[in-house]
From TrEMBL:
<keyword id="KW-0812">Transmembrane</keyword>
<keyword id="KW-0472">Membrane</keyword>
<feature type="transmembrane region" description="Helical">
    <location>
        <begin position="96"/>
        <end position="115"/>
    </location>
</feature>
<feature type="transmembrane region" description="Helical">
    <location>
        <begin position="172"/>
        <end position="190"/>
    </location>
</feature>
<feature type="transmembrane region" description="Helical">
    <location>
        <begin position="6"/>
        <end position="26"/>
    </location>
</feature>
<protein>
    <submittedName>
        <fullName>Uncharacterized protein</fullName>
    </submittedName>
</protein>
<feature type="transmembrane region" description="Helical">
    <location>
        <begin position="122"/>
        <end position="139"/>
    </location>
</feature>
<feature type="transmembrane region" description="Helical">
    <location>
        <begin position="38"/>
        <end position="58"/>
    </location>
</feature>
<keyword id="KW-1133">Transmembrane helix</keyword>
Amino acid sequence: MSAVVESWFLILAAIAMLLGGANLFMHHSNLIYNQKPGWGYSALTLAGFLITLVAGLLKLGVPLTPQFPEHAWAGSFEEQPGVIWWLYEYIIKPSTSTMFALLSFFVASAAFRAFRAKSTEAALLLVTALIVLLGRSYAGTILSAPVGDAYSFAALTDFVIMSVINTSGQRAIVIGIALGVAATSLRILLGMDRSYLGADE
């Protein structure tokens, strides 16, 4: 039963990706055609989308495999020095690092405002964050030195908070997202939700 559900989920995910790609192309093409404010960003988005799509489908630059040297498309599109590999190494990874480097300032500012113990929930959040930060810092190693590595403060912090509590919360969120994606895909495929066509349809 699980294999059947997984197969249907992959089918729905593939259809949803096709609809998402078509919607992305139509939306940004409309912005570029009408030259609305910010249409230059739409042009960059479309250029990146089309270049990545063509490079991935045609497997540009992918080396031949020893098992199938006569078939040019037998290798993985992620192989070095393929175009997809180059885009990931020299565009996506630096852009992601830059985004997270800038995001740290916003996280620090938001944490300063959120970690004010105005309620019980905020106090629990503040105490949990302090314990995690203490376990990840040098002070956590000093506190755990007399106890040993097996039952250190940092190890208990990672196991109890990060592995048990955090993982259970993440799994609940992922299950909810999967159910929401499946339900939304079914509604669109069955014609029950036509909001993606526009408000007038």
